[in-house]
Design brief:
This protein is mainly α. The protein has a single domain, classed as MetI-like (MetI-like fold), CATH 1.10.3720. The protein contains 10 helices and no strands. Helix 3 runs parallel beside helix 6 and helix 4 crosses helix 6. It is globular and about 70 Å long.
């Protein structure tokens, strides 16, 4: 049986990651100092030990919950703002500069300000992360809205489709590539910002553990926690996002 394109892409991705691990093995062998660059087997042993103690699972769950909350909030707000600005030239002219400002404010500044204004709590942490990503989502969705095919909208109106039906069957399918791009970038960026948030002001999470082991100069533990979450993000990408994207683009 001939392999499908998604299956081939998955196999290639796996082989590419195996190549990356082999490159890591070579670098660790050349360095020959596990306190500077431990090899994959040493990091794997640390992951197993941390998982057995329950620490890895507890801190992973804390970070996953923060990522999920901030990601959902940023996607919803960003899509609303982006679609509104894409469909309304007046809003885009008046508030387009605001997006540029928010895009260029460093994430660290937003995190520190949220902690100072709201306090060292979960609300401040999630708000800081969501604010950093919302502008990026809004810009992407706005550009997608500008690229909508007006002929499809005219056809929908000629068939007297209501606004809700037009949005679901005409607008949303065309926007999906831009939404998928925002989702992919969001997962890649948000979890990194969450780590900074945890590094600066939380008492649990992957970022907190990285901060702890950074102070102890335990590079193996730093890599173990970082790679554990990278693997989780890859699984989300290969399962959830790819599956939803394939289903949503069947109309093409």
């Amino acid at each position: 049986m001939t392999a499908t394109k998604p299956q081939m892409n998955f196999v290639i991705a796996i082989l590419s990651l195996i190549g990356l691990v082999c490159f890591w093995v070579v670098l660790a062998w050349l360095r020959a100092d596990p306190t500077v660059l431990p090899n994959p087997s040493q990091v794997w042993n640390i992951i197993q030990a941390e998982a057995a103690s329950g620490a890895l699972v507890r801190h992973m769950i804390a970070t996953i919950l923060r990522v999920a909350a901030a990601f959902g909030l940023a996607m919803v707000l960003g899509m609303i703002i982006g679609i509104a600005m894409g469909l309304n030239d007046g809003l885009n002219r008046w508030f387009g500069a605001w997006l540029v400002v928010f895009l260029n404010i460093p994430a660290l500044v937003v995190i520190v300000l949220c902690y100072l204004w709201i306090g060292l709590n979960e609300v401040a942490a999630i708000t800081a992360v969501a604010l950093n990503k919302t502008a990026m989502v809004a810009v992407t969705i706005r550009e997608g809205t500008h690229a909508l095919d007006p002929k499809l909208s005219e056809m929908a109106r000629s068939f007297q489709m209501g606004w809700g039906a037009r949005f679901r069957h005409v607008v949303l399918p065309q926007l999906w590539p831009f939404i998928a791009s925002s989702m992919r970038n969001g997962l890649a960026i948000i979890w990194k910002i969450v780590l900074v948030v945890e590094f600066l002001g939380r008492s649990d999470g992957v970022g907190f553990q990285i901060h702890l082991y950074f102070q102890l100069f335990e590079i193996g533990y730093v890599m173990a926690y970082a790679l554990s979450f990278v693997v989780f993000i890859l699984l989300i990408e290969w399962t959830l996002i790819n599956a939803v994207e394939r289903r949503a683009t069947q109309w093409r």
